[in-house]
């Protein structure tokens, strides 16, 4: 009987747009939020949200006015 050999640590990566990502890393792929994961002993992207969070540097002035408190008046 062969002795049981412990499995080597998995150092699998996922690839997207020519870049390698470690397991557990989360990125936006084609507008969907995806996590690098294992599926049937293969690395693969698992969709975790139907859309990606976006940082929008432009906010409509009315929206800013509604968010920010009024400026103090100088007398």
Question: What do you see in this structure?
Answer:
This protein is mostly beta strands and 75 residues long. It has a domain of 41 residues. The chain is 9% helix and 37% strand. The protein is built from 1 helix and 5 strands, in the order βββββα. The strands form 2 sheets. The protein has a 3-stranded antiparallel beta sheet, with no helix packed on it. Strands 1-2 form a two-stranded antiparallel ribbon. The radius of gyration is 23 Å and the shape is elongated. About 19% of the residues have low confidence.
Keywords:
75 residues, mainly beta, three-stranded antiparallel beta sheet, 5 strands, 9% helix, elongated
Question: Summary?
Answer:
9% of the residues lie in helices and 37% in strands. The chain is mainly β and 75 residues long.
- Structural class of the secondary structure composition? mainly beta
* N-end to C-end Cα span: 91 Å
User: What's the count of strands?
Assistant: 5
The main pleated sheet reads as: 3 strands, antiparallel
The count of helical stretches stands at: 1
Q: What is the general shape?
A: elongated
């Amino acid at each position: 009987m062969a002795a049981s050999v412990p499995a080597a640590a998995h150092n699998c990566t996922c690839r997207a747009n020519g870049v390698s990502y470690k397991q557990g890393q989360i990125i936006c792929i084609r507008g969907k939020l995806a996590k690098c994961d294992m599926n049937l002993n293969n690395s693969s992207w698992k969709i975790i949200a139907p859309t990606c969070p976006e940082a929008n540097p432009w906010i409509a002035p009315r929206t800013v006015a509604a968010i920010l408190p009024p400026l103090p008046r100088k007398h």
